[in-house]
Amino acid sequence: MKQLHVVVVGAGPVGVVAAIAAAQKGFKVTLLDSAKEVDHNPRAATTHPSTLEFIDQVGLIDEFIQQGLVARYFQFWDRDTKSRVAQFDHDLLKDETKFPFVVQTEQHKLVLMGLKRLATFPDVTYQFGISVTDLQQSSDHVILKTEQDGEMGQITADYVIGSDGGKSTIRKLLNIEFEGYTWPERFIVLTSIHDFEKSMGCCYRNYFAGSNEWANLFKVTGDDYKGRWRAVFPARTDESDEEALSDESARRRIVELEEACSLDSIVHRNIYNVHQRVAQKFRVGRVMLAGDSSHLNNPIGGLGLNCGIHDAMELVSSLDDIFHGADDTRLDLYEKRRKTLNVQFIQEQTIANKKRLEEKDPNARKQRLDELRKIEFDHVLQKQFLMKSSLLLSVINEKSITL
Predict the structure, then answer these.
(1) Residues ≥6 apart with Cβ < 8 Å to 352
(2) How far is CA 114 from the centre of its chain?
(3) Is there a contact between 161 and 9 (Cβ–Cβ < 8 Å)?
(4) Which of 62, 99, 114, 213 has CA 20 to 30 A from 127's CA?
(5) Eight-state DSSP code of residue 81
(6) What pLDDT digit, counting tens, does each position of 67-90 carry?
(7) Has this prediction a pTM greater than 0.70?
(8) pLDDT at 269 exceeding the cut of 90
(9) CATH of residue 106
(10) CB atoms within 10 A of CB 203
């Protein structure tokens, strides 16, 4: 039987996981990325129980946990009163998953350990600094035109996975609309070496609702494994990037969050646009989209990267089914499942997460916070809440979606 050749475009975490999963199926795999090297900038770091099961399947779980922080709990806080509203315990999921906790591991660490694992497979190659400039496809293959250091090239594959991010070249070459909108406010990220757990009594993952300004706060290990805290705030719509990242702005925001913190503790600053978008199509012929190339959402709740890894595993499973005799409608099912779950689950949930934190109306705000308190003290409700936030419910629901 002919070996299936899959080209994965985009060597971020979704692309690397897809490449490993494909290699495990015995496929020939070519992984490409236009960047010269792995991006080490602070990005996604929260990995939910459902996704940890997939990380386990591709053989990375022990190193992944070792390089990260295990977070059993997450908390909601009220910035107006500087008090904790509710705490949620993933241990309630111990009968539902092998991993009843979240792991905070920066995404570039997942990529690096994934590339090391890819090197152990035969028939797998990966190249950085190579761009896809065009694609053509027929009923039985795809031809990618490439450019590397001024040299033009060509790669022929059975299938192509476009996991090349929100600005996806593959999506644009397929002329697929990226439907949705961009939030008017950008998100500011301040990374600090201050020990918020010690000074505030918070856990590793925290969400702060505020009538004036909301915030998220979570801990990662950092490349030196000494610990870093990332604080996320909304920029004002009339605030320039320079103003938002200035010393004055950074000091105000970090001190208002925790008065024991200081400007000197901030080791990194960033600001970025935030989108809620879903590709009109996840598939055109033998070319499929996965991860940020097919969907973007605000990061509150940490669902974007997780959803992308779910895409990758479902897509490789679909290709394996085709390799063993299923017809190409299996890819139609992939598209229907992943798009349906993204529109009805991920987009809806991340928008609700944002609205919960930014609510300004006193009555509505009180109602939202009281609802969290009620959920905490009812273990049945809390487990239902955790099943949804951990994407375990999404995995269950996916199997019920048929053509």
Answers:
(1) none
(2) 16
(3) yes
(4) 62
(5) T
(6) 999 999 999 999 999 999 999 999
(7) yes
(8) yes
(9) 3.50.50.60
(10) 19
